Every structure is written in structure tokens, then in C-alpha cells.
């Protein structure tokens, strides 16, 4: 394969062609400079090319020495490329040297997501959506510390969402929709920003931001329900004692009841006062009826 003879290749964009079949990488020896791979909207099949990922040296390290932005190209020529990132197509008129992306979406890839992808720690964008990938989301994706956009939607992935993803502090876009995921959605700073559409189409998922509670949320809901029932029971007992005291004419208890009514008015809780008045009216009417019948 002639691509294996281009050791200085930095950007490989073959999107929206009619390429098909498996990606054979037996002749690919090294891609030390390759930073962007876009093979989306083709008809590639079989497993994801694990041996290709092993050759992507520039994606396996993060250059900590850069103090100012640098771009691919020189003063005579500059690269530009269009990539799908964060749910939309983005045209990069200039490509930062630190920008790394893999887009293999809208193909027919099968099998599992290779755990070795977690070694590509410099990745900013990873899009494997609209394929036929199966199995679990590998925990190793939690190593992608600078990833900003992660799209695994419209596959056949199962199992739980790895808790390790909750520690991806640069993650601004996440789409795991339309898979077979289940269990609790991890909680973390970035996960608090994602909405329902990041998870829709996974009937087994629960937790924030979906409606079903999960873990501590479910315990909290249970405690709130019990507390509400206790409040209702206490309210009922209070009203019953109050009316008995009022109708029997116990002056001291009546003063306490009036003090409580004053407190309710001053605190703005007028619903309780309305209930008391309605109940009082009802009991007075019942007392009058009994007297007339007697």
C-alpha cells in the first residue's frame, strides 16, 4: 500500500468517496507525523484497524514545550480541512499542529472498539458513529485527557458507560445515543453539562439528566417520599387535635392554636390557613346539624 511510503504525511482525508472493504495495514510501517485521519462516509468493513493505531506516534504524546500556536504548512502553503466535530462540520482554514482527530464515522465497521485507542492521549476529536460496533466502551478511553469531542452514537455498543469518562475535563461534546447501553450515567463536572440527546435511544440508562433516578438519586427520592408521608401524617394529627381543642373550648389550647395560625400567616404559608378555615366551617356545620336533629 503506497500510503505506507509517506512518513511525513500529517493529514489524511478520504471522506465521502466510494472506498470499501477492510483496511489492510500489513504494509504500513510507520506514520510518525499523521495527526488527522478522516475516512468517514465510505463503505469500509470488518474490524477497526488496530495495527494502524499502533503506528500513530504523533497522537501518543502531548507536546508540553509549545508556548504559542503553530500551524501545519509554511508561508508558501497552508493546509485546510473540513472535519465533523462537536456534532457539526467545521472547516479548519489553518490546522494547528496540536490538533489531532480520527473520524471513521458512517462506514460499516464491526467488532469492538480497540482498547489501544486509549493510548492516543493527544486526540482532540474521536468520531466512530454510524457503524456496527459492538461490545463495551473500553475503560481506556478515560486516558484521552484532552479529548473535546467524543461521538460513539448509532452503533450496537452495550454494557455501562465507564466511570473513567467522568474525569475527562476537556470533554465539551458527548454523543452515546442509539446504542444498547445500560446502568448509571457517570457523574462529573463535564457530564453535568450534557443533555438528554447525548443518551437517547439507550433504554437501559438512568440517572442525570434522564428522568429515572439512579444510585444516590433514587435513595434521595425514597427519603423525600417518606418525609412527605410523615409530614402529611403529622399535619393530620395536628389538625385533629386542634379542632378537638377548639370545639371543646379549651382556652389555653385555643390560644396555642391561634398562635400557630398567626405564625402561618406571618411565614406566608396561607395554604395551611385555608385548610384550617375549610375544616372549621365543615365542623361547625356538622355540629349545627346534630343540634337540629337532637
UniProtKB/TrEMBL annotation:
- Biological process GO terms, please? defense response; response to other organism
| UniProt cross-references to InterPro entries, sorted A to Z | Leu-rich_rpt, Leu-rich_rpt_typical-subtyp, LRR_dom_sf
Q: Which domain of life is it from?
A: Eukaryota
Q: Does the keyword Repeat apply?
A: yes
Task: Name the Pfam families on file.
Answer: LRR_1, LRR_8
Q: Which SMART domains match?
A: LRR_TYP (SM00369)
Record's Gene Ontology CC terms? plasma membrane
The UniProt entry, under PROSITE patterns, shows: LRR
Family per similarity comment: Belongs to the RLP family.
Q: What is this protein called?
A: Receptor-like protein 12
Which species is listed as the source? Answer: Nicotiana sylvestris (Wood tobacco)
The lineage is:
Eukaryota, Viridiplantae, Streptophyta, Embryophyta, Tracheophyta
Amino acid at each position: 500500500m503506497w500510503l505506507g511510503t509517506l512518513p511525513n504525511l500529517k493529514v489524511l482525508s478520504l471522506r465521502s468517496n466510494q472506498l470499501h472493504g477492510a483496511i489492510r495495514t500489513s504494509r504500513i510501517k510507520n506514520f510518525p507525523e499523521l495527526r488527522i485521519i478522516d475516512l468517514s462516509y465510505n463503505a469500509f468493513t470488518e474490524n477497526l484497524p488496530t495495527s494502524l493505531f499502533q503506528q500513530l506516534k504523533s497522537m501518543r504524546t502531548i507536546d508540553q514545550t509549545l508556548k504559542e500556536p503553530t500551524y501545519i504548512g509554511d508561508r508558501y502553503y497552508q493546509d485546510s480541512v473540513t472535519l465533523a466535530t462537536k456534532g457539526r462540520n467545521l472547516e479548519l482554514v489553518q490546522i494547528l499542529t496540536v490538533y489531532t482527530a480520527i473520524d471513521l464515522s458512517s462506514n460499516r465497521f464491526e467488532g469492538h472498539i480497540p482498547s489501544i485507542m486509549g493510548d492516543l492521549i493527544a486526540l482532540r476529536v474521536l468520531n466512530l458513529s454510524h457503524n456496527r460496533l459492538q461490545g463495551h466502551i473500553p475503560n481506556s478511553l478515560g486516558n484521552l485527557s484532552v479529548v473535546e469531542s467524543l461521538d460513539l452514537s448509532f452503533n450496537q455498543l452495550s454494557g455501562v458507560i465507564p466511570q473513567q469518562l467522568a474525569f475527562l475535563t476537556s470533554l465539551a461534546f458527548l454523543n452515546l445515543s442509539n446504542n444498547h447501553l445500560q446502568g448509571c450515567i457517570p457523574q462529573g463536572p463535564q457530564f453535568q453539562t450534557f443533555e438528554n440527546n447525548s443518551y437517547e435511544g439507550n433504554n437501559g440508562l438512568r440517572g442525570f439528566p434522564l428522568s429515572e433516578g439512579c444510585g444516590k438519586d433514587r435513595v434521595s427520592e425514597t427519603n423525600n417520599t417518606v418525609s412527605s408521608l410523615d409530614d402529611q401524617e403529622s399535619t393530620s394529627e395536628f389538625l385533629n387535635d386542634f379542632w378537638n381543642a377548639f370545639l371543646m373550648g379549651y382556652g389555653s389550647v385555643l390560644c396555642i392554636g391561634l398562635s400557630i395560625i398567626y405564625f402561618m400567616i406571618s411565614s406566608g404559608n396561607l395554604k395551611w390557613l385555608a385548610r384550617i378555615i375549610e375544616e372549621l366551617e365543615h365542623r361547625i356545620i356538622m355540629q349545627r346539624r346534630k343540634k337540629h336533629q337532637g
